[in-house]
Specification:
The protein is an alpha/beta fold. Among the domains are: about 1-100, Lrp/AsnC effector binding domain/regulation of amino acid metabolism (RAM) domain (Alpha-Beta Plaits, 2-Layer Sandwich); about 320-410; about 425-510. Helix content is about 25%, strand content about 25%. It has helices spanning about 5-10, 35-40, 70-90, 130-135, 160-165, 240-255, 280-290, 325-335, 360-370, 400-415, 440-455, 495-510; strands spanning about 15-20, 45-50, 60-65, 95-100, 105, 110-115, 120, 140-145, 150-155, 175-180, 230-235, 255-265, 270-275, 300, 305-310, 340-345, 350-355, 380-385, 395, 420, 430, 460-465, 470-475, 480-485. It has a 17-stranded mixed sheet. It has a 5-stranded mixed sheet with strand order 20-21-22-23-24, with no helix packed on it. Strands 6-7 form a two-stranded antiparallel sheet. The longest helix has 18 residues, at about 70-90.
Length: about 500
Amino acid sequence: MPAGLRAPALLSGLALVLTVTACGEVGSEPEVDYEAFAESVAELPAVESVDTDGDGDGEAFTAEISAEADEAALRTTGRRIMRLLGDAGVGYDASPLTIVSGPYTLEGAYGYSDPDTGTYRSDRLDLTDLPHLHALPDVASGILRNGTATVTLAEGADLRTWVEDAVTRDGHTRVHAYPAEEDSQETEGPDDTPGADGGTDAQTAAGSAAGSSAVDRRWVPADSDDLEESFRFHLGSEANTEAVQKLFTAADAADATVVTAEVYTEGDVDADLELQSLDALEQLDDVFTDEYDALTGFTFHTGDGLRLDYGSSVESHYSPSAPSIDDVLSAHEQIEDLGASLTSVSAGLREAEVEAPDTGVLRDVADAVSSSSWPLEPTERVSLHHPDSPDADSSLAAEWWGERVDVLASLWDAGFIDATERGESATAVTIHRGQGPDFTTAAGRDALIAALRGADWQANARITLEDSQHLTFESTADGKALNPHNPQGDASAELSEWAQEFVDAWDATAG
């Protein structure tokens, strides 16, 4: 931004600066007469002045929009700018247009979602909500895009206090608010796309058109252990106001802290809440079951490492047989008594996650979850992993674990703790080349074959070895390898040298 425009904009707090740049591949767009473009924009009712210096390449200009412009002038200016872009052959969807208004930066076309119906209009540049956005207090910076204002609060502003005030205010913009940022928390954000409620699935922060420093903020989903405090809601929505008040009241009564929350058009809520410990879940159960018909949309995180996820209120990831908190506490007690850890229960995914420190505990957990005393649904999945390989999850229906654990336990005993078992009707194990013996060498190959031959399974099992070249084959517990192939490519292609040697050694040990 030219220095001559920057100072008045900052002093007024309401001045707007518009930057237009060329987009598209060379030769793919008609040549744009930027001087005529600037003159046309200067004549629009909300535009106070135009500076054609731009960035010095002749393909940008800035326009200051009067802070005194009324709603009619702002609406007309937005519509005519879109028409001018269309006439010039410059696509608004490629974001050739940037508006800076006080702390806000507008990128690309700025439609909005109606606070009552959620209807999203992307084919417009709607400037009429700027007065309402400027009325929001303690906004350090903000991005306006796809009907959403993604704002970062000023230092010292409390997010909850700010949300409780802001949600009562007029407007038609969806707001995604973050607390004041720290320099060490800069992240890269994804591209913005319209969300199910007319907002965005993720918002990317940016600096002004003048090239000031930018910090990209990202929304961290609820399945992450690294939650970033944030809140989404709609201005001008009574349903949102009531939902926010109800959420905070329930959280206070349960001694819980709201970390992230998204309030939708009809007042449905998805939220992540933190609790001091597992014991607090009992109190929370009493409060939330009184306030809400179901726990759908809520994810609870305890200070001692349990994550209890009841799915999304808008994505229908909820099971009618979702476990009660009492059932979860009972399951947690059973698992802890065995020396393992219940780290997550997801009603949306219909799965419980367990960490077992060794083979003995693995077998004990398998027996427990497949027994009639297991408090969760027997058809829901239980995922098991070793603490040294947290990403190597073996997942089976709870009722299958007792009869299927032998293969995985034998592999763990031999050091292959990142092996996984995820078969449905039959055993299917995958062994990754990583922790444990290297199965592409003679010693590692012999160790893996001995571990598999030392286990028992019914019918044919599918066995996959993953390296830069994979090997997959089927076999009974004492049989030869059937249909050995590399699943990455043509099934008829020759096996790699180590894979062929493995198949030969496997067949040599057949009974």
